[in-house]
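Thread amino acids onto this structure.
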């Protein structure tokens, strides 16, 4: 009997009939295993990543070491906030921690009953509110003005002039303001030479809060301008052209194109600024504290320095600093949560 006859009577199947099911099963198996293989292929082993990124890791290693030494290792010293720390009970300050008596939350109870502490808190919050209302919008407005300048040379010169004071120290900034607004400054001397009575704004406690805002604007507004100009550079010109074709004027384009493009950066900087609410400045206020008095210039940073370093009450100063740090972390987390609710990324994503 031939091969064809045997296949018709239920004998041996032709080779094609055997190969078709096998190919189908192989294709189905490949489809099932494809995602697994893709997932395994997409995950690079840590040894390969370590070998691949060793140059970047070596570059960041000094920064990580400095961060650990100066930002995280000192956090262990906060234990003295729960002690009556005396650095002279041992040969060095580190071993003195193990020999100092524990007092629990006594330092915190003392802090909450100290009227000088609450006066420093009040000044800090008032200055933060003024900085948030007066200082924060100024870099945004100046960035919008500079961005609207057509000539690149004029824009570059204006940007360089505004950014230059950022490199000045607070000693130099206060010296400049003293030479302009002080009792022996240019303005006061000019008024006296023309028969008017002079003035000394640098020693007036009533306007000290606005004076430090002016100093901060002159010194640090240029840095904010750089940040916002970098965000504006990423805005496509097609959006402005489309808005202009729809009949939008300059103010309409600024409101509907420019400000929405700046909103993520504004939200990020605002979150960071709120988290730094209790740190309105140390060197700036310490340099002017004696001129206007502690009632006007005492903030939490200078208060911690005064009680902890100047008067040697290390445990009490550590307690105040610890409370300040905890409140700052809570403010960052709260402000970042609000940014997420408003649809912004904030400091980190969800």
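Threaded sequence (350 positions):
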């Amino acid at each position: 009997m031939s091969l064809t006859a045997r296949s018709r009577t239920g004998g041996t199947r032709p080779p094609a009939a055997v190969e078709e099911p096998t190919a189908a099963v192989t294709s189905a198996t490949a489809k099932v295993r494809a995602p697994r293989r893709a997932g395994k292929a997409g995950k690079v082993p840590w040894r390969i990543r370590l070998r691949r990124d060793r140059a970047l890791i070596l570059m960041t290693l000094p920064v990580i070491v400095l961060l650990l030494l100066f930002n995280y290792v000192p956090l262990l010293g906060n234990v003295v906030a729960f002690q009556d720390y005396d650095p002279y009970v041992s040969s060095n300050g580190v071993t003195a921690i193990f020999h100092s008596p524990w007092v629990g939350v006594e330092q915190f109870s003392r802090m909450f009953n100290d009227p000088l502490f609450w006066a420093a808190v009040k000044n800090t919050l008032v200055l933060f509110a003024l900085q948030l209302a007066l200082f924060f919008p100024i870099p945004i407005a100046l960035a919008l003005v500079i961005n609207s300048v057509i000539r690149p040379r004029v824009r570059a010169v204006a940007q360089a002039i505004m950014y230059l004071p950022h490199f000045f120290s607070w000693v130099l900034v206060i010296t400049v303001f003293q030479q302009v607004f002080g009792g022996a400054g240019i303005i006061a001397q000019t008024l006296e030479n023309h028969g008017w009575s002079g003035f000394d704004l640098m020693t007036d406690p009533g306007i000290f809060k606005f004076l430090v805002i002016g100093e901060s604007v002159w010194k640090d507004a240029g840095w904010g301008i750089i940040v916002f100009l970098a965000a504006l550079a990423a805005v496509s010109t097609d959006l402005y052209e489309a808005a202009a074709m729809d009949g939008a004027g300059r103010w309409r384009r600024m409101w509907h194109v420019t400000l929405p493009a700046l909103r993520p950066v504004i939200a990020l900087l605002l979150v960071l600024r709120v988290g730094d609410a209790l740190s309105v400045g140390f060197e700036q206020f310490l340099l002017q504290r004696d001129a206007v008095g502690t009632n006007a210039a005492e903030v939490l940073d200078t208060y911690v320095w005064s009680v902890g370093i100047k008067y040697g009450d290390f445990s009490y100063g550590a307690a105040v600093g610890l409370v300040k740090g905890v409140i700052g972390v809570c403010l960052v987390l709260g402000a970042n949560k609000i940014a997420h609710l408003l649809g912004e990324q904030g400091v980190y994503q969800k």
